[in-house]
Backbone:
């Protein structure tokens, strides 16, 4: 039975870090079109104009409260690259540690705080997993919600030892870092990681050791792991996956099927003299473009990066390299779904068109063969993505 | 039971993320042990779309009693005073903020953006941002200098970029348990319990400050960051070295100069060239002297400190 | 460098000034921007060019001005090592000397 297209405006959409509105067109119970509107403009690019070059180290991390370390890392490396500074080995390690500590924080914080609380929505009350989900993941009162949200603060204690606080430190500066960690900082950091591993990753999240989990290379391995022990199946990861299948998360969420990552974590011995050209062959986590339609991977050359401004509230030409952006906000930001309707801009490639970035994109790129031998390679998510019929919802949350 | 609503305007969510680092009490403890009922929070709330709108409308109409309204982020007025550059639940955020502030018993401005405008309000302030009751040092802000919430209290300012989770949780507990009246506020409406002492109070570099030994380059294992690297610890009011960050450290302990982020002027000197991580001097004397010290006294102090300097003060002190 | 090396170099620098080395004592850098310009000049010098270092920074072998400014009170002076700890200079000095990078 065919129905009319029904338009639904959702304002606000929460738990996304920023003010977001979404409009969707629904036909026969299926979303057939969607428009996302980012509804906040602060103009950091304009604030940084004509300021001290190092102002970027203070301002850009404050663009985002949950990923400031990534912004700080980029700001510091940008200055190093522009000024031709040499960065010592230990400073690169300290920067990478900072960024990784922040990423570890976001694992439980994302899963419990932002994502799995949707699984306790009353709409899923008929799922056999529902009762257990509420017990574990209900906001504030769920047993594992409380454990997960509380422990999410531990990894960034390592960041605080390097940079004094998390979020919003500026401890990375051209030529290195501001800190010089002592024995106590190193021992405590190590111990925090052990605590995090024992009390959350292995105990609650996986139900097995990290070493056992790392043996999983394919989707079949993962399903076999689920069946291997009730501990695995009933871990939060195991239950999230099984409940996800039960409520149909594997049936929707198809995206563009084209992905990008610029790579990150410069190698401590390969990027001491940073250059734009040398970056791709110096990062531990490789860059890449993955095209699902042709199932091909390639290295991401930054010169092909394009920012699509066509739908965005800026008075600027449609598609340019980010270096050529001017950030001219237009005053009258009415939502025109045929024209401009958001402050955010879209990521594109000069040859491949629009691309998706983010955790799923990164994991898919690690599944390729386009990287150098020493760079990170991991095929699990790539295999999972293909075997799940290109559906993204469950795989994406897995990442 | 106290109902709490938390919204974000021109924000980065950093105060929310900082809040989630809280322990003793944790964010969950606030709900389970201290009777705070979180009506909605941008990073934690279950509801979206019209359900959120309904929560807000009920607060405004009085159907739901709004005990505490926490606002994070600046109030965006651009373009041309309309606030359209920051819309939320179908209208400019500033319109919600006005109505909710008028409905709330207690209003808390959380973080620099909400207190004095913060980074978004840095020149040229593209978003025409202001704080709830201040813009930088100027009293007034979005709500006006005379604003008081239903409790009779003005906006409680908890500055910082971000605010420390303990500053937030302790104020929320005080308010939720009916002790808001015993909070003493300073001239910038900051709770004195946190903002009377200085960032320098408790800093591990105090001995080097006393004997005038400078950290002349980042990463050195000796010295104080005030003399060369622009540290604002002696002039900034915060308990960063009393109530440590993430339980373990502080910026000055780790080797990063204090940026003075709990003061209305942050970021200082509007980040003009030559002002970042650099002590500003006039004729060889720091432009901003430690709070309450005059130039003559400072010169005398320096002579005496140098004359008395013990040999160890010149050596690395933070060694492996 | 050993203490002996430091002492020898300090004597040598003292001698250079006693023998009438003309250095740029003025203008005194009014603010840290001016100060930075002098530092930049120092950074551009050959690191072994001691004489130019002393000239650009305006070394003299006695206190300066009405206030009798001298290394002893300067922020960069390490009392026990008798050493200037400003990275761009990094030379042994006497407490009674002065240069225009003096600051407290």
Residues:
């Amino acid at each position: 039975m065919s129905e009319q297209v029904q338009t639904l405006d959702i304002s606000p959409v929460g738990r996304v870090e920023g003010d977001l509105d979404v409009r969707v067109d629904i036909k026969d119970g299926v979303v057939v079109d969607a428009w996302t509107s980012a509804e906040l403009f602060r103009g950091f690019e304009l604030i940084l104009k004509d300021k001290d070059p190092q102002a970027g180290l203070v301002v850009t991390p404050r663009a985002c409260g949950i990923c400031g370390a990534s912004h700080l890392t980029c700001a510091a490396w940008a200055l190093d690259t522009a000024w031709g500074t040499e960065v010592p080995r230990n400073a690169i390690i300290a920067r990478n540690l900072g960024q990784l500590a922040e990423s570890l924080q976001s694992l439980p914080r994302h899963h419990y705080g932002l994502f799995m609380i949707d699984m306790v929505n009353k709409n899923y009350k008929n799922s056999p997993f529902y009762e257990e989900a509420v017990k574990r993941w209900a906001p504030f009162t769920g047993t594992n919600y409380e454990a997960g949200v509380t422990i999410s603060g531990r990894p960034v204690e390592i960041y605080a030892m390097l940079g004094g606080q998390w979020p919003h430190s500026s401890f990375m500066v051209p030529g290195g870092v501001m800190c010089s960690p002592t024995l106590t900082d190193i021992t405590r950091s190590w111990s925090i990681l052990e605590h995090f591993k024992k009390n959350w990753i292995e105990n609650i999240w996986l139900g097995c050791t990290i070493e056992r989990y790392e043996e999983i290379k394919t989707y079949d391995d993962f399903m076999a792991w689920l069946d291997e022990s009730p501990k695995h199946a009933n871990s939060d990861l195991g239950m999230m996956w099984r409940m996800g299948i039960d409520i149909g998360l594997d049936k929707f969420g198809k995206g563009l099927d084209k992905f990008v990552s610029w790579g990150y974590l410069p190698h401590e011995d390969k990027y001491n003299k940073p250059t734009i050209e040398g970056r791709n062959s110096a990062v531990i986590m490789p860059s890449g473009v993955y095209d699902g339609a042709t199932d091909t991977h390639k290295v991401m050359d930054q010169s092909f990066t394009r920012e699509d401004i066509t739908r965005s509230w800026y008075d600027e030409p449609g598609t340019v390299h980010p270096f050529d952006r001017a950030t001219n906000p237009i005053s009258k930001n009415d939502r025109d779904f045929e024209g401009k309707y958001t402050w955010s801009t879209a990521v594109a490639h000069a040859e491949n068109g629009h691309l998706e970035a983010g955790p799923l994109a990164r994991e898919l790129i690690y599944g390729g063969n386009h990287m150098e031998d020493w760079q990170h390679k991991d095929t699990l998510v790539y295999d999972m993505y293909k075997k799940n019929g290109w559906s993204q919802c469950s795989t994406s949350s897995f990442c | 039971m106290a109902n709490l609503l938390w919204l974000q305007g021109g924000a980065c969510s950093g105060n929310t993320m900082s809040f989630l680092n809280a322990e003793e009490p944790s964010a969950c403890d606030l709900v389970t042990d201290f009777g705070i009922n979180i009506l909605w929070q941008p990073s934690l709330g279950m509801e979206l779309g019209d359900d959120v709108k309904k929560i807000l409308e009920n607060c405004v109409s009085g159907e739901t009693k709004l005990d505490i309204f926490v606002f994070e982020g600046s109030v965006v007025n651009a373009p041309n005073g309309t606030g359209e550059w920051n819309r939320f639940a179908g209208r400019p955020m500033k319109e919600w903020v006005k109505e909710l502030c008028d409905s709330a018993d207690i209003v808390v401005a959380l973080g620099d953006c909400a207190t004095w405008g913060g980074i978004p309000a840095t020149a040229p302030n593209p978003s025409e941002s202001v704080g709830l009751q201040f813009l930088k040092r100027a009293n007034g802000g979005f709500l006006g200098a005379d604003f008081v919430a239903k409790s009779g209290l003005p906006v409680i300012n908890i500055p910082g970029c971000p605010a420390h989770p303990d500053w937030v949780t302790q104020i929320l507990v005080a308010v939720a348990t009916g002790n808001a009246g015993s909070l003493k506020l300073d001239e910038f409406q900051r709770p004195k319990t946190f903002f009377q002492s200085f960032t320098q109070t408790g800093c591990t570099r105090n001995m080097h400050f006393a004997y005038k030994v400078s950290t002349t380059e980042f990463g050195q294992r000796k010295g104080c960051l005030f003399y060369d690297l622009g540290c604002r610890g002696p002039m900034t009011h915060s308990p960063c070295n009393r109530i440590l960050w993430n339980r373990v450290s502080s910026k000055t302990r780790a080797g990063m100069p204090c940026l003075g982020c709990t003061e209305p002027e942050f970021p200082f000197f509007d980040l003009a060239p030559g002002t970042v991580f650099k002590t500003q001097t006039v004729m060889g004397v720091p432009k901003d002297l430690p709070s309450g010290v005059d130039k003559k006294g400072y010169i005398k102090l320096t002579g005496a400190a140098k004359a008395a300097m013990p040999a160890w003060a010149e050596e690395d002190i933070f060694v492996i | 460098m050993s203490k002996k090396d430091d002492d020898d170099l300090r004597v040598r620098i003292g001698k250079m000034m006693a023998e009438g080395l003309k250095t740029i004592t003025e203008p005194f850098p009014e603010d840290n921007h001016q100060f930075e310009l002098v530092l930049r000049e120092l950074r551009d010098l050959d690191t072994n060019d001691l004489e130019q270092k002393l000239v650009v920074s305006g070394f003299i072998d006695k206190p300066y001005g009405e206030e009798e400014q001298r290394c002893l009170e300067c922020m960069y002076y390490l009392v026990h090592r008798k050493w200037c700890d400003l990275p761009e200079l990094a030379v042994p000095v006497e407490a009674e000397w002065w240069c225009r990078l003096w600051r407290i």
About this structure: The mean pLDDT of chain A is 94. Chain A has three domains: 1-40, 51-207, 248-399. Residues 1-40 of chain A form one domain. The first strand of chain A starts at residue 6 and ends at 13.
